[in-house]
Amino acid sequence: MREILPDIQRWTSEGKSVALATVVKVYGSAPRPLGAKMAVSSAGEMSGSVSGGCVEGAVVQEALDILKSQTPKLVAFGISNESAWEVGLACGGNIEVYIEPIC
Question: Which of 26, 27, 70, 102 is the most buried (most CB within 10 A)?
């Protein structure tokens, strides 16, 4: 979390809203551990990481929607090991990411 705090502080000082995404469950393999965090500004900037590949883009889109609605959400992502390489991920597995507006 400490590594993303400077970006969160900068974004809020610029008047941007911020959402925080946190990995809350991991099933099987995952590129990032339980508790990994990513912040997303209302301008679509991101800091940190919750996964990799296409999942990061999906988390950013969810975060932008959550910033508009101000309603937190639990989102699940999963892919088989066989399909992982095809979409740019290092491994298969399933994760759940809790995304919430923080400022």
Answer: 26
Burial grade of 88 (CB within 10 A; 0-12, 13-18, 19 or more): exposed
CA distance 21 to 98: 6
Determine the Cα–Cα distance for residues 62 and 67; give it in Å rounded to an integer: 9
CB 24 within 8 A of CB 7: no
pLDDT at 22: 97
Query: How many CA atoms does the CB half-sphere of 74 hold within 13 Å?
Result: 4
Going by C-alpha positions, the residue among 53, 44, 33, 48 that lies closest to residue 95 is: 33
Q: What's the domain range around 93?
A: 5-101
Domain count, the chain: 1
